[in-house]
């Protein structure tokens, strides 16, 4: 089991210029209490690495304390570099503007539009709403690079004000959800790359490693089989806005613990934990004999050896999450990664964040509107 100083919810599910469909646990300011941990965080170097298929672009991600996974992109001519969350729970790309007046921008890299010869300015105002915060600013366009992938005249947001991102270990967010949840009239970067012929297959995939800062990747245009075991199980999307699927049930020790009549689940790389309806999460914690500790639930660290796996049944396939994954050590106690707060969504909806995706290599297939899952190596 890895040891962490705190728990963080990342960028997470968003909907631009509309109300938030799912309420997340808490803001980054609240959850990143151990601010001194940010000082030792090193920037990752992003490269296109795959030698197997020239059409597969593999981009390195850096794991920040198993809470967030970031990669580098560049914007402009000459390129200005930023660390962003590659977020399946939103569709917009944004970074801080040099004109941003919020305290959060003072500790992050900012884009200077005056230093880019390829920048195109629209001044269209934008408002992007996240679970942990909001971004207000304007829309611009420029050359955006993800390693060797180049998106020309890519629309992106430039923040003038940011709320809830103080102390975040990333500068901005690169959304990978469907265009319908993004800023109206904007073609997201993945769609632009697809239209511009950057890859032959409109798929991307994530391998998120555990504990180590290095080794995680997002790949575009194909799948590298070295990152998973066995065969991919394909799951059709239940709707094509977020990466949403139907889930049959959640069980522990052979008993249904939640989702007894079926439910919905979102795979979200912008969220670190697993979120569900509060009353069902409370019931699951009772089965774990977990005790409430503020807004979180704690168990005896010795109990990790005896707790059962939590099993997510999706399309008839069991996806176990062992206690070593769903219990994390924080300071001198052990916390559950299950959190409530999705009551505003209908039907019953769960958010499966990075703690789930570390166990399962995940493929997001836009052509066929499906997700592939297989045990990660």
- Spatial order of the strands forming the largest sheet: 4-5-10-6-9-8
Mean pLDDT: 87
Instruction: Tell me roughly what share of residues is in helical segments.
Output: under 10%
Percentage of β-strand residues = 35-45%
CATH level-four homologous superfamily name of the largest domain = Acid Proteases
Distance between the termini: 17 Å
Given the C-alpha coordinates, what overall shape results?
Answer: globular
How many domains comprise the coordinates?
A: 2
Helix and strand composition category = mainly beta
Total beta strand runs: 28
Q: Number of DSSP helices? A: 6
Name of the CATH class of the largest domain: Mainly Beta
CATH T-level fold name of the largest domain: Cathepsin D, subunit A, domain 1
CATH architecture of the largest domain: Beta Barrel
Strands, helices and their partners?
Blueprint: E1 3-4, E2 14-16, H1 28-31, E3 57-64, E4 68-75, E5 80-87, E6 93-96, H2 103-106, E7 120-130, E8 134-146, E9 149-163, E10 172-175, H3 189-195, E11 203-207, E12 216-220, E13 233-240, E14 243-247, E15 249-252, E16 255-258, E17 263-267, E18 274-276, H4 278-287, E19 291-293, E20 296-299, E21 310-314, E22 317-321, H5 323-326, E23 327-330, E24 333-336, E25 338-340, E26 349-352, H6 354-357, E27 360-365, E28 370-375
Parallel strand pairs: 1-23, 5-10, 6-9, 17-26, 18-25
Antiparallel strand pairs: 2-7, 3-4, 3-12, 4-5, 4-8, 6-10, 7-8, 8-9, 11-12, 11-27, 13-14, 13-28, 14-17, 15-16, 15-21, 18-26, 19-20, 20-24, 21-22, 23-24, 27-28
